[in-house]
């Protein structure tokens, strides 16, 4: 009998190993990107692993980012006063998606639609949270993303 359970996005993309490859290669490419390199110039060597753990948790994988790094509030704190622009955001999303293509991550329409949906939503929140008036909600839940749920409008803090 076939299992009818729908896999999480994390399971569909193959788990942690592909996310680690994605973030490692992405941040290698960031170093050569004129717009993004200055934003990440002082990035810690463990940054790609932290982003992989964050994405893993958001996409339905292990909750290790929350357990070891403080969850969504910690991620928001990393963006405070960075003054990211829409140009930064668009380039970040574009480079991440082209890196996913380069590495052969799943490219079926359903997965890519869900991934793009999260990247658009999350990167727009990163821009909002990078402005001078942003505040951190210490109780903000970790985002959870799946195969098509739409999040409501951002009401702000």
Which terms summarize this structure?
mainly alpha, Globin-like, globular, Group II truncated hemoglobin, iron, heme
Strand and helix layout:
Layout: H1 9-13, H2 16-30, H3 47-58, H4 64-69, H5 71-79, H6 86-102, H7 109-129
Helix pairs in contact: 2-3, 2-6, 6-7
Pfam families: Bac_globin (PF01152)
Organism: Tahibacter amnicola
Protein name: Group II truncated hemoglobin
Tell me what you see in this structure.
This protein is mostly helical. It has a single domain (9-129), classed as Globin-like, CATH 1.10.490.10. 54% of the residues lie in helices and 0% in strands. The protein has helices at residues 9-13, 16-30, 47-58, 64-69, 71-79, 86-102, 109-129. α2 crosses α3 (47-58). It is globular, with a radius of gyration of 15 Å. The termini are far apart. The mean pLDDT is 90.
Characterize this entry briefly.
This protein is mostly helical.
- Portion of residues in beta strands equals under 5%
The string of secondary-structure elements, in order, is HHHHHHH
Q: Strand pairing plus helix content: what structural class? A: mainly alpha
The CATH homologous superfamily is termed Globins
- Rounded mean pLDDT is 90
What's the number of structural domains? 1
Most strands sheet: none
Helix content: 40-55%
Pfam family, one: Bac_globin
Protein name: Group II truncated hemoglobin
InterPro entries: Globin-like_sf, Globin/Proto, Hemoglobin_trunc
Keywords: Heme, Iron, Metal-binding, Transport
């Amino acid at each position: 009998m076939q299992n009818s359970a729908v896999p999480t996005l994390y399971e569909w993309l193959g788990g942690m190993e592909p996310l680690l490859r994605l973030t490692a290669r992405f941040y290698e490419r960031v170093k050569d990107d004129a717009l993004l390199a200055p934003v990440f110039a002082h990035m810690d060597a463990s940054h790609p692993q932290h982003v992989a753990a964050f994405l893993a948790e958001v996409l339905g994988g292990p909750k290790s980012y929350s357990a070891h790094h403080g969850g969504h509030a910690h991620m928001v704190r990393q963006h405070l006063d960075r003054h990211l622009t829409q140009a930064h955001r668009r380039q970040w999303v574009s480079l991440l998606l082209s890196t996913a293509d380069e590495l052969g991550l799943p490219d079926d329409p359903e997965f890519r639609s869900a991934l793009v949906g999260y990247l658009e939503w999350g990167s727009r929140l990163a821009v909002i949270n990078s402005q001078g008036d942003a505040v951190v909600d210490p109780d903000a839940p970790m985002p959870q993303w799946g195969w098509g749920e739409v999040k409501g409008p951002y009401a702000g803090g």
